[in-house]
Design a protein that fits this description.
Blueprint: H1 3-28, E1 37-52, E2 57-62, E3 69-70, E4 75-79, H2 82-145, H3 151-212, E5 214-216, E6 221-226, E7 233-234, E8 239-256, H4 257-260, E9 268-273, E10 276-288, H5 302-305, E11 309-315, H6 318-323, E12 333-339
Antiparallel strand pairs: 1-8, 1-12, 2-4, 2-7, 3-6, 4-5, 6-8, 8-11, 9-10, 9-12, 10-11
Helix pairs in contact: 2-3
Length: 362
């Protein structure tokens, strides 16, 4: 075979490759959208949640790895809480001690009340004795005026009466002192009960801190990043894991003013991803920005206003995501197609075509 023949065959091969590439591009290129539809490119996004330590401390263990699917409430990591547990035991001992103080204070209150009751009984006795001595003195005063008794007897009864008055005053003072002692004992009881409440509150606070040392998944999702490792000391709010909420997945794309103005929340959307164009995923418009993006601050002419681009977000049904959770990938680029006219049917290439359902996650 001559040199010219080889060159000719080479040129023919290149021409065939170019023709095949052109044919493939024509077959695979997106078809133009019919009236009533509009499209925009974007990427799949999911809400990211940082699983972080509430308080400063050392990571004891991490129970989840990158890529793991987790359920709501699942334990993902544990912080070292030995110091908190020691403080809780100390607070429990203080609670026990405060409980003993309450019992002692109650006994003191009962004792002071008994003393007050005894003082009141003494006062009643002294008042009865005073009344008897008063009547006796009055009788001796009458007899003395008649000369039927001696002056000495009258003086003795008068002294007895005055002694009775002093005894009543002393009994009243004793009651006042007993009442003050009762008030003091009750104050001590209230203080002891306050100490009990404070110790209980301290125990509850420490228990909350200990419970917060167990880091749980706030929602079902997939672990995206493992930010820290066991043994590391974190500050308050230090991140341990990054979790993707696979129940809140959407695509953000941009539409011009004319098209965005026709959109309403809840409008139907079809998503087609570059990595799997054989599938068409249904979604709905969940957000339309009220401020244009990537445009000058001031727009003076009608033609410039047509260049305004508004951010739109299409959200995928959470129930649909649950049944296809293993197929959910964030960051995947694709196209979002929106039906502006609800009277028009979706074209055949945008009919819903879903991937097979995922196996249930443990």
């Amino acid at each position: 075979m001559g040199l010219n023949t080889k060159k000719w065959l080479g040129w023919m091969g290149c021409a065939l490759l170019i023709a095949a590439a052109v044919l493939a591009w024509r077959l695979l290129r997106p078809k133009g959208l019919a009236d009533g539809f509009v499209g925009g490119n974007g990427r799949i996004e999911a809400v990211e949640i940082d699983v972080a330590a509430k308080s400063a401390g050392r990571i004891k263990e991490i129970l989840a790895s990158e890529g793991d699917f987790v359920t709501q409430g699942q334990i993902l990591a544990r912080m070292d809480t030995q110091q908190l547990e020691a403080q809780r035991r100390e607070a429990e001992a203080q609670l026990q001690q405060a409980g003993y103080a309450v019992e002692t204070a109650k006994s003191q209150v009962e004792q002071r009340l008994s003393e007050k009751n005894a003082a009141q009984a003494v006062l009643a006795q002294r008042r009865a004795e005073l009344e008897a001595s008063r009547k006796r003195l009055e009788r001796f005063e009458v007899l003395s005026r008649k000369g039927a008794t001696s002056v000495q007897d009258l003086d003795d009864n008068r002294a007895l009466y005055l002694s009775g008055q002093a005894a009543v005053s002393a009994a009243e003072a004793q009651i006042a002192a007993a009442q003050a002692a009762v008030i003091t004992a009750k104050s001590q009881l209230l203080g002891s009960q306050s100490a009990v409440n404070a110790a209980r509150a301290t125990i509850e606070r420490l228990q909350v801190d200990i419970d917060d040392g167990v880091l749980k998944a706030p929602t079902a999702g997939r672990i995206q990043y493992r930010v820290a490792q066991p043994g590391e000391v974190l500050a308050g709010g230090g991140k341990v894991l990054n979790l993707l909420d696979l129940a809140d997945v959407s695509m953000t794309f941009f539409l011009p003013t004319e098209k965005a103005g026709q959109l309403g929340l809840g409008a139907e959307v079809r998503l087609v991803f570059d990595a799997s164009p054989q599938f068409v995923i249904p979604a709905r418009v969940s957000f339309v920005a009220d401020v244009a993006q990537f445009t000058p601050k001031t727009v003076e002419t009608a033609s410039e206003r047509q260049k305004l681009m508004f951010r739109v977000k299409a959200k995928i049904d959470p129930e649909l995501l649950k049944t296809h959770i293993t197929h959910v990938k964030t960051g995947v680029p694709g196209m979002a197609y929106v039906r502006l006219d609800q009277k028009i049917d979706w074209p055949a290439e945008l009919q819903v075509r879903l991937p097979p359902e995922s196996e249930p996650q443990p």
